[in-house]
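Can you give me the bound-state structure? Components:
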Amino acid sequence: MTTTTPLTSDLDLFSDEALTDPYPHYKALRDLGPAVHLTRHGLWFISRYEQVRSALGDWETFSSGRGIGLNDGFNDAWGSALINMDPPAQTEQRKLFTDRLSPRALRPVAADIDRRADQLAADLVTRGSFDAVTDLAQDLPVHVIMDLIGWPTEGRDQLLDMAAGWFDSAGPACPRTAASVPKVEALMGYLAEVVAKENLVPGGFGWTLLEAHKAGQIPVEGAIGLLAGYVVAAFDTTISTISSSMWLFARHPEQWDLLRSEPSLVPAAFNEIVRIESPIQVFSRTTTREVDLGEGAVIPAGARVLHSYGAANRDERHFPDPDRFDIRRNPVDHLGFGYGNHACAGQGLARLETHAVLKALAARVQRIELTGEPVRALNNITRGFQSLPVRIH
Ligand code: HEM
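Here's the bound-state model for the whole set.
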């Protein structure tokens, strides 16, 4: 990285190299100042824990209303998605999600999730070697979450690629963003068709959105945007968490031994995984006024600000020895699910699924071994794997 003035950098955080291993860059940018102007893409970057948390808690200054993507095409197309709104409209629409995803509402499905995870773990133990992304991590999101949404069985596999395209399409002007456009157009068309044909199982989460639309509570674009909130947000994020857990435990067998000897550490392990390998690395906001963050970092009004959950979760100012994977750390205040009015609406479900997988594997598996080179899924927003060959003993 070369810097020109103290709070300016020409680093390209969206290059293959930076996406493969962003952490040294995050550290350099955190050390540079509380906000750094990234000249390559005309963005301000906030990466320290304290400033990221404050920005997420202050929607009146750091607004989502002009979109959380880094290009106008994305922000215009998905203006009706919950994530791209400010209160009061966002508060109202968010209720449609939180009612169905609260811990109480999810209690009846917990047993099903545990059963499916148990069966999956038993099958994988019999197989021994498999791909932890396609054979393990994708299973619960594709089957359990899609069942809860009430998504038609056919077409679920296509959604995986389209959802990854959605995240990429939120990136800055660059070839990766451009390449995602056809996938996103296909996703938009697919969601519109499902809404128009009312092709959702009555009683599922998606059906609630359809009913709200039919009752005149939300326009058709609103129903499509909200439905995207389920199918997009629920896939890559949870798949990434489960894949990263396998990668981390394979590289830290002592932490796996600890989890096996104390299964009550599963919730703490989940928090540590989302902290250290945050599935969503960055999103953005727009400033509604000039903001002085100290140390000479003055962000003008109307600026596009990239905030990094991934960088904040590795900030040594907040988490001692942040690059160390330690399931006893239990970082309950990590920012991997965001913070404030947009904090993840589906985290209860992500928790249920990942807990179930970790519990089922810890009860059966002594050791997780990588059997080939992991392949990263490079994405403008998310961090995960395309393939992760493993053997379990
Ligand atoms: C480990 C898995 C997950 C992670 C790490 C994650 C992360 C996040 C983050 C960081 C945000 C905040 C965005 C912002 O600040 O603008 C968010 C929002 C959201 N997430 Fe998740 N998510 C996960 C799973 C899920 C699941 C399973 C669902 C749905 C069933 C979901 C639905 C949503 C929705 C609807 C929002 C937007 C909330 C709003 O704008 O008010 N997420 N998520």
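A couple of observations. The mean pLDDT is 94. The CA atoms of residues 212 and 218 lie 6 Å apart.
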